[in-house]
Automatic annotation (TrEMBL):
The keyword Metal-binding applies. The keyword tRNA-binding does not apply. It comes from the Eukaryota. This is ferric-chelate reductase (NADH). PROSITE patterns: FAD_FR. InterPro entries: Cyt_b245_heavy_chain, FAD-bd_8, FAD-bd_FR_type, Fe3_Rdtase_TM_dom, Fe_red_NAD-bd_6, FNR_nucleotide-bd, RBOH/FRE. It is found in: Membrane. Residues 257-362 form the FAD-binding FR-type domain.
Length: 646
């Protein structure tokens, strides 16, 4: 009953969210504009040293959430301390401060459990709950970080206070206690140890310099959750169970999708140690601009999954999906070396998870879009520009003016501008956009003409075992997800009822003093996993069969010669403009050497009534743009948060 009361409302909201997203009952653009106008001042960015760039809404919710935790903790203490008197402490053989310390330690754990209830929502990539609040999993990672820090602070304080209490009362042997029908201290200590290891590797300096260490140690979340459940028992963990349940559903679906190899058609190799991977996909696979996809290359690492921003457009390129990979880390550098070597391979095994992205986007609400990028931060803007090309070319919509301000270290990085157009792009498509590109090369004083390398395209041989990228749950994925969540929970309740009535009750007779808490917890966790596995696998296999029928209708994309020009419009500066199919793109571009963009001047010169400002790049650049937009010196600048991966 306790599990049902705490879990059902959240799962019911997730199911309703799935139905809502499926039918697309989104308010009209007029209402959206009205709401955004009212919330404009609350969406203005703030720069806080320990939090980064946050909106006033985010800061307000953070303050309210911390207030909730503080209020809960103080209320717990007020109620519990009222029962602690010198007489009650003496009866337990303790001093008053020792009894209060033990009570405070317990309440720290209870408050930590409240935080843990929210911890897994931001990392549920296919969540139906996050989009209800206009959030994406990639954009909500910062909330996961905030919650993780609070959770580990509270749980560490919980553990330390108990150790001090046991030491003061000469009960250190309690640290080795695993009570059959009570709290298991050993399990709690193991869970805390796993959490501390994960917490240490999240320190920004360690995460940046030793990302693989951070990545692999985060798999300790499995042990952390298992021993946490063994520590408190299944009934007391019901507060955090809904979020973790939805995460398990999402994680198992991702596991099923990752078992398949996808069809990699080609790779464009840029001289700036950047790759564009082009995959085959079914026309029914649609995604929104700024979506991301996780990529795994087993020949490099079977465990590492890296997120990359999708640069293609599902409307312009119905049978192709592209991602850009910049050779920054060890994994991406290995991939670049493999594909750029003279004896390049003709086949590469690749698995994917996703795509994941916002349910909808609305770039037409602004008169002008300013996109500020540094280095490979240009990747999400490629997908946005291609979406605007589709809107202006096919839907005949009036699109906003676009000002792309991009900063690169070297002139070889200018070749990334070639990716603004799809391989099949034509000048007419781009000429209908009011696009102006201001490119800055910061480390070179003038164009370089020595040791130039051209863009090269590598085509891969098709393999019968590879399949185009398809939606894991088909065209009606939201309805299938709602069916999985609801049916798996019903099956779990049935299994749990049968287990309790015919196995546990004859032993325990509802006394909760005979049957082991740990055994009960393990059995319930096992039933949850079995219920999710049964329903998710059934839905996956059904849609796999339907997708196979669609896949057979798609011919293998063969290309003996690249469609795109092998040279770069920008890097090979001495060529005549008329020789390029991307003539319109070149004419829209101004390249500045040896200087950095004056962002304040560029933004304040814009006089349109509504200017959307998007930024992707180094932390310093993001903070500078956010600071300009939040300064209040220009009311027409609207800072838009964009998440990207490369």
């Amino acid at each position: 009953g306790t599990i049902l009361v705490y879990t059902f409302p959240i799962l019911f909201m997730a199911v309703l969210g799935c139905v809502y997203h499926h039918f697309g009952k989104i308010s009209s653009d007029k209402n959206m504009e009205s709401k955004k106008h009212r919330l404009a001042i609350w969406k203005r960015p703030l720069i806080i040293k320990s939090l980064g760039i946050v909106s006033r809404i985010e800061l307000a919710f953070l303050v309210m959430f911390i207030s909730l935790l503080v209020w809960s903790f103080l209320t717990y203490l007020h109620v519990s301390f009222a029962t602690i008197t010198p007489q009650s402490a003496a009866k337990a053989g303790e001093k008053v401060w020792e009894s209060k310390l033990e009570s405070a330690a317990l309440r720290l754990g209870l408050v930590g459990n409240i935080c843990l209830a929210f911890l897994f929502f931001p990392v549920t990539r296919g969540s139906s709950v996050l989009p209800l609040f206009g959030l994406t999993s990639e954009g909500s990672v910062k909330y996961h970080i905030w919650l993780g820090n609070i959770v580990m602070t509270l749980f560490t304080a919980h553990g330390v206070c108990y150790i001090i209490y046991w030491a003061a009362t000469h009960q250190l042997s309690e640290m080795l206690k695993w009570d059959k029908t009570g709290v298991s201290n050993v399990a709690g200590e193991v869970a805390l140890l796993c959490g501390l290891v994960m917490w240490v590797t999240t320190i920004p300096r360690i995460r940046r310099k030793m990302f693989e260490l951070f990545f692999y140690t985060h798999y300790l979340y499995i042990l952390f959750m298992l021993f946490f459940l063994l520590h408190v028992g299944i009934s007391y963990s019901c507060v955090m169970l809904p979020g973790f349940y939805l995460f398990l559903v999402d994680r198992f679906l991702r596991f099923l999708q990752s078992r398949r190899r996808v069809r990699l058609v080609s790779a464009r190799i840029l001289p700036c140690e950047t790759l564009e991977l082009n995959f085959s996909k079914t026309p029914g696979s649609s995604f929104t601009p700024t979506s991301i996809m996780f990529v795994n290359v087993p020949s490099i690492s079977k465990l590492q999954w890296h997120p990359f921003t999708i640069t293609s457009n599902s409307n312009l390129e119905p049978q192709k999906l592209s991602v850009i990979i910049k050779g920054e880390g060890s994994w991406s550098k290995k991939l670049y070396q493999i594909l750029s070597s003279p004896s390049s391979i003709d086949r590469l095994d690749v698995s994917i998870e996703g795509p994941y992205g916002p349910v909808s986007t609305n770039f037409l609400r602004h008169d002008t879009l300013v996109m500020v990028s540094g280095g490979s931060g240009i990747t999400p803007f490629i997908s946005i520009i291609r979406e605007l090309i589709f809107m202006s070319e096919t839907l005949k919509c009036k699109t906003p003016k676009i000002l792309l301000i991009c900063a690169f270290k070297d002139s070889s990085d200018l070749t990334m501008l070639d990716l603004l157009l799809p391989i099949s792009g034509t000048p007419s498509e781009l000429s209908k956009l009011e696009l102006q590109i201001e490119a800055y090369v910061t480390r070179e004083k003038q164009p370089t003409t020595q040791n130039q390398k051209h863009i090269r395209t590598v085509w891969f041989k098709p393999n019968p075992s590879d399949a185009p990228i398809t939606p894991i749950l088909g065209q009606n994925s939201w309805l299938w997800l709602s069916a999985i969540i609801s049916s798996s929970f019903i099956i779990f309740l049935l299994f749990m009822g049968i287990l309790t009535r015919y196995y546990i009750y004859p032993i325990d007779h509802n006394t909760n003093q005979i049957y082991s808490y740990s055994s009960r917890t393990v059995l319930n966790v096992l039933l949850i996993c079995i219920s999710i596995a049964i329903t998710a696998t059934a839905a996956f296999l059904w849609n796999k069969k339907q997708n196979a029928m669609e896949t057979t209708q798609i011919q293998n994309i063969e290309g003996t010669t690249p469609v795109a020009s092998p040279n770069s419009c920008f890097y090979n500066a001495d060529r005549e403009l008329e020789s390029f199919p991307e003539q319109s793109l070149v004419q829209s571009t101004n390249v500045h050497y040896g200087e950095r963009p004056d962002l304040k001047r560029s933004l304040f010169e814009l006089k349109e009534s509504s200017v959307g400002v998007l930024v992707c790049g180094p932390k310093k650049m993001r903070h500078e743009v956010a600071g300009i937009c939040s300064s209040g010196l220009s009311d027409n600048l609207h800072f838009e948060s964009i998440s990207f991966s490369w």
